[in-house]
Amino acid sequence: MFRHIEAFAGDPILTLNEQFVADPRPAKINLSIGVYLNDEQRIPLMGAVAAAEKQLAQSFHPHPYLPMAGSPAYREQSRKLVFGGANAERIATIQTLGGSGALKVGADFLKAWFPQARVWVSDPTWDNHKGIFGGAGFEVKTYPYYSPATHGVAFDAMLDQLRGLPAGDVVVLHACCHNPTGADLNPQQWRELALVVQERSLLPFFDIAYQGFGGGIEEDAFAIRHFAEQNIPLLVASSYSKNFAIYGERCGALHVTCKDAGETAKVLGQLQSAVRKNYSSPPGYGARVIGAVLQDAQLRAQWEQELTAMRVRMKHIRSALHAELQARLPGGDFEYLRIQQGMFSFTGLPVEQIRKLRDEHGVYLIDSGRMCLAALSNAGVAPVAQAMVQVMT
Ligand code: PMP
């Protein structure tokens, strides 16, 4: 029966991680996977999360099904985190299985109601964008995004491409901390982009998987809030995986901004329909934890402080690696480490050098040259810099 089935090639990032685990060298360093590690090289358990879990464990909770749209309190808190307080009646929000689940439900919703649209993703992007939108039946195309020369956004080329698209095409945008490049649009560029999106009647689908990892919780939501203020209809997939370090509990949300309360109710109904056909209803535990943190002033303040500390740590590691590289190779251009933000940077190292880093120095980056700075400890900075300089010279 199953003889014709082909082997799954595996996910390149997860496969590399397995290779890292099997590597016997004690000094090996894994900068390939997209996970934030603390300086002790562990996924942190945030204090606010632990406190909320403790409170929950002390009260009796059965395990009912959640509604298709998820926990009402969690949905409300999620909407506020992304949009601020504005326009509650015009935003349809559902709880989802992480950011991935939000993208998937959003993609199914769009395919049902905008079957002719094409989906445009940045070149490069998080690989699974192609998988999820392609899997929902869309033709997925790319728009120019990254300029290796400036280590920033190829903004003019991006705008030129988007200006040529037909009305109704979907444009996937990373709201902050672009994965994999770390290169983000500045506020002025977001404003210009909003004008083009409006002129061309494009449908933006924001992906915000790192809110609080770039400039701050509010700053990182700038683009979404600006587009919403311009009354541009849009979708948002938001994720708590990173900013609550709650990866395995699969916590995210999908938001769709609408014209009025009537439209919101219809959209919400169709999102529920998409959920029903995929997995019926989302899981309860993580939503309870996050809801408890965001609703309680003290826990929320604690969470914000801890999130700030994570952001500061990443910026510190960026500066430290920059300084270490610059000292070892004064002619090199490592400014990108300080300009780019979030967990990742694009090193621009060619694939032969990435392989040498891995094979000869036990420093693991993925072949594209993306480095996860959020996984680098203070102790790892000097050996990584040394290894990079050795393969570069
Ligand atoms: N979008 C982007 C850009 C991501 O980097 C990730 C996580 N790596 C996701 C979405 C998915 O988030 P989650 O793990 O919450 O499904």
From TrEMBL:
Protein name: Aminotransferase class I/II-fold pyridoxal phosphate-dependent enzyme
Cofactors required: pyridoxal 5'-phosphate
Subunit-level organization: Homodimer.
A GO MF term: identical protein binding
Residues covered by the Aminotransferase class I/classII large domain: 28-387
GO biological process, alphabetically ordered: L-phenylalanine biosynthetic process from chorismate via phenylpyruvate
Family stated for the protein in its record: Belongs to the class-I pyridoxal-phosphate-dependent aminotransferase family.
Keyword check for Acetylation: no
A Gene Ontology cellular-component term: cytosol
Keywords, comma-separated and alphabetical: Aminotransferase, Pyridoxal phosphate, Transferase
Domain of life: Bacteria
UniProt keyword annotation of Metal-binding present: no
